[in-house]
Amino acid sequence: MKKLFDTDNKEKETQKSEVDTAALARRMPNIKVFSGTSHPDLAQRIVDRLGIDLGKVVTKKFSNLETCVEIGESVRGEDVYIVQSGSGEVNDNLMELLIMINACKIASASRVTAVIPCFPYARQDKKDKNDKSEKEQNVEKWKSIEWKFRSRAPISAKLVANMLSVAGADHIITMDLHASQIQGFFDIPVDNLYAEPAVLKWIKENIAEWRNSIIVSPDAGGAKRVTSIADRLNVEFALIHKERRKANEVASMVLVGDVKDRVAILVDDMADTCGTICHAAEKLMEAGATKVYAILTHGIFSGPAISRINNACFEAVVVTNTIPQDRHMKDCSKVQCIDVSMMFAEAVRRTHNGESVSYLFSNVPY
């Protein structure tokens, strides 16, 4: 009798799960969301928010380290979204994304959207003047004609844009591009979401003295970003002018603005080795700031970043989860995380239903 009762219960549970799945399918028809290996947690949060299941995909590497991707379910005529962030093993993750896009495209998906929370190679968006080598500094003839020579560096962000388009991507969803002009590298639609609404919400909820704060940009390039946040909070802003000797090395810093007896909030789009923000924090404390917070959209934290943050004078270093942060949060108690999965989920929902996503530029969906 007990056995019969258990069997009935199992059948009821199976029927209930089938009904739930059918209800979800009716609510979001013809949509599939797949995750790459770079950030499965974010992809899972996105589908949980949408109320659908994550698509089945198998990713493996051959013995020669070639990437192999197998899509585990039909995508014919479906609206496909592939979540893959430009973090960790950036080159492997980028290649995996390109293969997944192409696999879905040649399997007759009606539209393939790449959801790239942190866009890879975004810092390589233009050619800069190259620093002179020692040889050039010592040879007079090079000094006389140095203005003719520009860096022979590639514009890799444009190359990545071309690769995504050629692979078959029809649409890109990303967040806080290092330079918003990267959108112009594409001939397909690009939705560049902003972490600003989530940042404002965090500041108001977690910094009690936010009305006596000053928003600081660690470089001149972020001035537009900090003025926008300062205007929304109705506080003042400052910026730090820096000169670099070479990549990841800061030469000198000059603070422009008055931070004395105020809570300084450093805002930037990304932090890699954290040399810039740690030097900036020291500068702000020397200038009389009472506390220093750092809020960053993409916390890459490579090399000595975590040890620098541990030794710096930050109250907190706040990042979003466009890049996995679990390990960083274990290694450093100052690192805190803002969840932005609901913004990507809402962008996916609105894109799928043909609705405007501009609401997300100034609001956090609940």
Could you characterize the architecture of this molecule?
The longest helix has 26 residues. The chain is of the alpha/beta class and 366 residues long. The strands form three sheets. It has a seven-stranded mixed beta sheet with strand order 10-9-8-11-12-13-14. The chain has a five-stranded parallel beta sheet with strand order 1-4-5-6-7, sandwiched between helices. A two-stranded antiparallel ribbon has the order 2-3. Helix 2 crosses helix 12. Helices cover 37% and strands 23% of the residues. Strand 4, helix 3 and strand 5 form a beta-alpha-beta unit. The N terminus is likely disordered.
Unreliably modeled segments: 1-5, 14-26, 131-149
Q: N-to-C terminal Cα separation, in Å? A: 47 Å
Q: Roughly how much helix do the residues carry, as a percent range?
A: 25-40%
Written as H for each helix and E for each strand, in order along the chain, the element string is HEHEEEHEHHHEEHEHEEEHEHEHEH
Strand-residue proportion: 15-25%
| Overall pLDDT score | 86
Q: Would you report the number of β strands?
A: 14
Radius of gyration: 24 Å
Strand ordering within the main sheet: 10-9-8-11-12-13-14
GO molecular function, one term: kinase activity
EC number: 2.7.6.1
Keywords: ATP-binding, Kinase, Magnesium, Metal-binding, Nucleotide biosynthesis, Nucleotide-binding, Transferase
Pathway: Metabolic intermediate biosynthesis; 5-phospho-alpha-D-ribose 1-diphosphate biosynthesis; 5-phospho-alpha-D-ribose 1-diphosphate from D-ribose 5-phosphate (route I): step 1/1
